[in-house]
Amino acid sequence: MNARNDHTIETPRERQGRHKAMEAVKVLDTLREYAVNPPEAMEYFYELHRRYHCDMTPMHEGKTKVGTMCIQVPYEVIDALGAAPVRLCNGFYTDDEIGGEYLPSKSCPLVKATVGAFATDHFADAPDLVVTPTTCDQKTKATGIVEEMGYPVYEMEFPRVKESEESREYWRRSVRNFTKTLSKELKTKLTRRKLKASIQKVGYAQTLYHRLSALRKAELPPISGNDMFLVTNAFFFDKTEAWSAAVERLLIEMEARVKEGIGAARKRSPRIVYTGSPPIFPNLKVPQLIEMADAVIVADESCSSNRLFNDMVSVDEWFLYDMVDAVADRYLKGCTCPVFTRNDDRIRRIVELVKEFSADGVVYQAFAGCQVYEMEQRSVLAAMEKEGIPILYLESDYSPSQLGQLTTRVEAFVESLKSRKRRQ
Amino acid sequence: MKRIRRFLDLGNLRRFRAIVQLVTFVLLIYGAYFAIDLGSNMPVLSCGYDRQNGGMCYLLPLQHQLGRPLGMLFSMASIGILVGFVTFLLWFIVFNKAWCGFVCPLGTMQDWLTSLRKLFGIRYSSYNQTQFNRLKVIKYVLLVLLLLLPVAIGAGLIGGEWRAAFCQICPGRMITPLFVGDFSQWTIDFSSKTTMILTALGMVITGMFLAGSFVKKRFFCFFCPMSALQYSFSKFSILKLKKDGGKCTKCGDCYTVCDMQIKDIADDVQSRDILRDDCTLCMKCIAACPEEGCLQADIAGFTIFQSTKEGFSKRMQIDRPGGDDERA
After folding, report:
1. What interface predicted TM-score (ipTM) does this complex get?
2. Pair A120, A15: CB distance under 8 Å
3. Is A225 left (phi over 0), alpha (psi -120 to 50) or beta?
4. What are phi and psi of A15, to 5 degrees?
5. Low-confidence ranges of chain B (pLDDT < 50)
6. CA–CA separation, A291 vs A83, rounded Å?
């Protein structure tokens, strides 16, 4: 791999890199191969993922990189302080296996894979500081493990109830403390102007996502769900401006497609709302199965995509700490993560997405070991049944082993949706 | 039709409101100069002590009317009271509590004080939820007193100096006349112990009004008995604040911008009619909602303003990143 070195035998690290590159390339190739009318503007994202995950090309050289372990870390604040936020949630099976050395085998593959990447320090953009919000148990406990490995870690305290004013105030305080600490750490002063610019920058990216999403309501959705996941996953590590510019190009192409009636699926393809544990590149196992079985994902409810972009910062008075508080609210109030005590909001959201995007069914994936999503499946299933929405619950992980069984179940589900559609 | 819809939804609510407030302020405070008189049954605090007013607050005549001897109060002579009340109601049911957010001069003045604070770069203060819940009761207590005291006078239980007791302590009495150069209300009335206490209290409350509204948005509206009176009839109004709970993500954006700290606006996903007693129908929540059609203002079933993603982006100035940095 590395010709300048004299190694003739591959080092473990090189092997890890090669295996990860193989995983990534396989996913990208499969997506290309099975795409119905692949959009030209998607090339940017295919290439971006290839460069970042296979070539390990850093995206933020010269900047302090703040690694974020969950969706709740306020992106706007990090950006305003001149650092680069890089989300470290990981989807590599290779890293998952390495992480298995540090965490119980039954724990969540996402957390295992993330810890695995830390264990081997295998990053394109290695974080200078790791920020972990105390969201789910496994991420909270992973904090200690990552710290022991020698990374500087900052803990952000996150409440598990979001309805009360107390938790809102508590979280606002967490975000204010984080802002102060990071500002000291980076020796930069957070100014009103900078934070406003960041809020607008991120807000604009969100607006683009919303516009792109809205196009998927069309009778023939112009973009596949898997491509959408590539786009949203790219936001984890890409420069925001570059990402926005690429999505702008994609939008132009997609708008033209909707007008011309070109879709990324067939007219009869069942429309799916995807929910549950987040598909994080390259673990697009289940979304790929769904779309290869001739269904199309028209919307999703997951923290790697929809939830990442949906809620927007609204500021009443543009003062520094009014903005910081407003940013804090965005990450708590609208969040539908199942770590919270109650989760009616998530159910309402799924139902609304099904209606809004005229979906035919819901696929709910829970990673084996991801307790909160596993525990919740019953309530979501019951709610969907009440609404008459067909739903398929799948338990999966990052391993390629149970593909056969999953394929059968997904195909059967898609077929049942098709025959249901025919009957209507 | 679609174009009108879009024009309305993308509207600059802030500017629209500021203009309406200015126009109605001039109308209500200086109306007499233009020979405009909208009568004495307005559902806003536009004080009758301002001799040039173009329409005055209903609370003053209401207290006077209720203060009649009981025999007279329950006679045909009270048809006049009924007429006044019906006029008040007719005004009210058209615009609902938008009277507070768009017309009330005392409300407008508070918004001006808020702008002054912003100019100084000082951040607003807010109540916590416990304080809020305690404070919101006060306006009902004031309303009950406002209705009972005159009746008690009529029944001979208390002296006539309690007449229009609320007006004695209302900051509107002292502040509105100032705008026409009348400082005569800035005195303590020593004619009796009661009037002395009431007018002194009025002084204190006026001071609190000025200081309070400077640090707290719409400080006085939490205590306003007019607000309580209005809310009692707001179900009948044709202007409605509506919410589609299914579309709400409870993101709290509306709650964040609410001058009156109404938490229900964000958290209640069941109510269709989301107007609460403290609401001033300023519609800031609609402007701040990023969900398509989640919040809307309807007049007789016709939507005049609703939340849209596009409108949100425009008002938050995120449709053009790196745009101007004006203090919005």
Report:
1. 0.89
2. no
3. alpha
4. -65, -40
5. 324-328
6. 37
